Amino acid sequence: MIKLDCNKLPKTTAQVFHHILAKLLYLFRRTQQDIQTAVAFLCTRVNHPDSDDYKKLTHVIQNLRGTQDLTLMIEPGDHPNWWVDSSYAVHPDMRSHSGIIMTLGKGAMYNRSCKQKLNTKSSTEVELVGIDVQWDRCYGHDIFGSARIICTYDNYLPRQQEYHTTCREWKGLQQ
Question: Does the predicted model carry a pTM greater than 0.85?
Answer without folding.
Answer: no
